[in-house]
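Memo to structure team: turn this sequence into structure tokens by end of day. - J.P.
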Amino acid sequence: MNRFSLFAAALIASQLVFAAPKIEQVEPLCWWTNMHTPLTLLFHGQDLSDAQVSVQQVVKGKVMRGQCLGLVPTGQHNAESPNYLFVDMQVNDPGTYRITLQKGKKKASYDYVISERREGSRQRNSFDASDVVYLIMSDRFVDGDESNNSTPDTREKADKNNVNGRWGGDIQGIINSFDHIKKLGCTAIWPTPMLGDDEAAWSYHGYACSDYYHIDPRYGTNELYKQMVQQAHSKGLKILMDMVPNHCGAAHWWMKDLPYHDWINQFPEFTNTNNVFTANYDINASEYDRKLSNRGWFDHPMPDMNLENNDLLQYFQLWAIWWIEYADLDGLRVDTYPYIEKIPASRWLKAIRDEYPNINIVGECWTRPAPAVAYWQSGAMNFDNFDSNLPTVMDFPVEEAIRQALENDGQGWGNGLTRVYDAMTMDYMYADVNKLLTFLGNHDMARITDVVKDKDPRRVKLAYVLLATMRGIPQVLYGDEYAMTSKGEDPNNHSYLRAPLPLGAEVTPAMQEMCDFQSRLFNWRKDEPVLHWGRTMHFLARNNTYSYFRYNDKEAVFVFANAAEEPRRIPTETYAEILGRYNAVGFNPMTGEVVDLNRRDIEVPALSTIIVKLVK
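Reply from structure team:
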């Protein structure tokens, strides 16, 4: 090789070694003092591996010279991709800090903000059995700001003629609806994911995240989201964030440059999850089924995240904590919880609960029967000593029992409300029955009015009385307060059942009557601690009725539900063991009527309920 070739090779090598780093993403976006969770910053850009890290404080726009003690790098490591760098930081003081990544003489800088943590943030309260949760499909609920229905920086544009497209629901629409939600008697709001979802089509559901730290611009901005939470709090409402750690979207920026090959679970060809949740606790399960359950992809545009990668697990821990702290959230809902690798998923939740000891988190564990759901609740006495660190699970077994009880006339052994009794007998399986999210339907299943026989509003009301008076945390799907039905021929078609909330003249007198009924029911429930924390005693009857007491040492609420198509007598003589503890003359909180349960001739009309409040 001649001298020129040697010189050229040396020049190329020096350019490779000292290529200018470029910073494109830094996450989390900011941080706070006095946090329990250690801060590790993810830097992504170009040629960041092995960069030298330095920090200087910025005061009034000027970079201060000398040693910086407010934010101190304590360690760093590379990823497999040269375009990432993970930097551990010790946070001491609030301020703006210029973080510089330097390679040779070339450098890139980023100004990072540390804020003072809000007083009392760590001990924040959360949602619990005294609440009623209102579930919103964010894109379909209410379009409060038409100007953001389509944005230049997102691929899918609004098209209200496309049932599978975006329709324009947004943060402003939720804010505009606070008074309606509060009047209904709901106290907490669960919107489906609002983070960036930039798939070219079918992005309206929000469950294929393309940016974990920014609200999708078609909903609004991070600042508007934070304002939504603040305004909700001013009205006595709580906000839950719907989080999806199991999968991201194919449009996420890191899919073009993964930090590690195992950042996601990969296969030679597309491989679905087998949806076999039982493999997580089945002593007979094959390792093949177990791995496919947790590592298979939920769908084509939803790459499955591998939380066994420690950097990803830490990334998700910081992500959840960042949103709680930034937006002042009241709780979380976790999508597709059993699909996640269960040990790191438990560690993820533990980190969140270590930071916020009182926070409640509800997980979607869509499985049955009750023992299969109970396995996932924190505190369960599991044979393998597994603890999910998930405080609240969704009560799919009772949801199914109520729907099946009311979808027909209930004739036949074991049918009708006997199904509900049988489902409730499994309460002994749960670590805490007051931490079950109870519901009649959600955004992924046919609406309750579509399910009950003849779409009869009497059956819908009966279902809601059960929901409001059983143990657990009730959840209402938006629009069900109006007995909404699917707008398509198939009530199970997700896109059709996720229609907008009726507004103004769209609300018929019959719809308003149903809403008023639920409003009386849930507003009464607010002030009844016995319904929030009381015990349950129930009584079996095979004539399509179901009766139970929610009770404590001072008071009780008696409920008699008649799902038969003819009147039924209340068998008050069978309640002696509990009725004798209270004054048997009470009142019906829905009507104000005095009810004497000493009588044995009380009839309850077909397809109706009676509620009686009793005291000592």
